[in-house]
Amino acid sequence: AQSVTQLGSHVSVSEGALVLLRCNYSSSVPPYLFWYVQYPNQGLQLLLKYTTGATLVKGINGFEAEFKKSETSFHLTKPSAHMSDAAEYFCAVKIPAGNLIFGKGTKLSVKP
Amino acid sequence: ETGVTQTPRHLVMGMTNKKSLKCEQHLGHNAMYWYKQSAKKPLELMFVYSLEERVENNSVPSRFSPECPNSSHLFLHLHTLQPEDSALYLCASSQDLGYTNEQFFGPGTRLTVL
Questions:
Q1: Spatial distance between the Cα atoms of B5 and B66, rounded to a whole number of angstroms
Q2: Which pLDDT tens digit goes with each residue over B61-73?
Q3: How many contacts, defined by CB atoms under 8 Å, are there between A and B?
Q4: Cα A93–chain centre separation
Q5: Looking at chain B, which residue has its C-alpha nearest residue A41?
Q6: Once rounded to an integer, what is the mean pLDDT over residues B58-84?
Q7: Is B18 a residue whose pLDDT tops 80?
Q8: Of B33, B39, B21, B5, whose CA–CA distance to B92 is shortest?
Q9: Mean pLDDT across the stretch B38-54?
Q10: What is the 3-class SS of A26-42, one letter each residue?
């Protein structure tokens, strides 16, 4: 069965600093990987997804993630944090004939 | 309206009440989902519908009863809930159940059971 682990339930960065949110997955078959963002009082919005092909995936709002099969990781990064990036971020994995499995989420705080 | 809408956005109910949550998608999708989001826990998939047929029921207590009258609407009927059922209930839709299909989420209904 597949699973997702997000390291750190809360990450705090300064405005303009690098954002790094960690995600490791477990899957017996090649997975599809997703990052979602949830702003306060809202639903989840897709940031980016990896299906096949290029392992560096670019998403909305300047975020990107790199699929590293050898490390079973799909970490989310953004070179320069903005106050509007404060939200909760969820990594998720999906396999054929499987459901979307979410991690517990990482809450990102951005300090002025 | 665009995307996925949910009503009501907030709901407070007693343990003996009966209420319903409504979800509507305006995306022409064929699959719809109910999730439960509790604090400090991963999102829990509750039900999956494809073309109005229920295809997944993840051991959800019978006090939660889903209904999908057509591919655009999904309901979650609630009765005799427990305080531990208090959570954010999210609806989502996708084009179909395909491997790569992105799920689009509604804003959720914040449920409080007293």
A1: 17
A2: 999 999 999 999 9
A3: 46
A4: 10
A5: B107
A6: 94
A7: yes
A8: B33
A9: 90
A10: ECCCCCEEEEEEECCCC
Which of A36, A88, A102 is the best mutation test for B, with the most CBs of B within 10 A? Answer: A102
Cα A43 to Cα A57, B13, B37, distances in angstroms: 22, 22, 10
Regions in chain A scoring below 50 on pLDDT: none
SS3 content of chain A, % helix, strand, coil (to 5): 10, 55, 35
Looking at CA atoms only, how far is residue A48 from chain B in angstroms?
10
Kind of pairing between the strands at A101-102 and A87-94: antiparallel
Q: Do B102 and A49 touch (CB under 8 A)?
A: yes
For the cut 70, the answer to whether the pLDDT of residue B2 exceeds it is: yes
**Residue partners of A96: CB distance under 8 A and separation at least 6:** A29, B99
| pLDDT exceeds cutoff 90 at B104 | yes
Which residues of A fall within a CB distance of 8 Å from B32?
none
What's the confidence (pLDDT) of residue B78?
A: 96
Task: Say whether residue B90 is in contact with chain A using an 8 A CB cutoff.
Answer: yes
**What is the C-alpha separation between A58 and A86, in angstroms, rounded?**
19
- Helix, strand or coil, per DSSP, at residue B17: coil
Contact A102 B42 (CB under 8 A): yes
- Please say whether the beta carbons of A91 and A34 come within 8 A: yes
Is residue B101 within 8 Å of B94, Cβ to Cβ? yes
- Give B72 to chain A, closest Cα distance, Å: 18
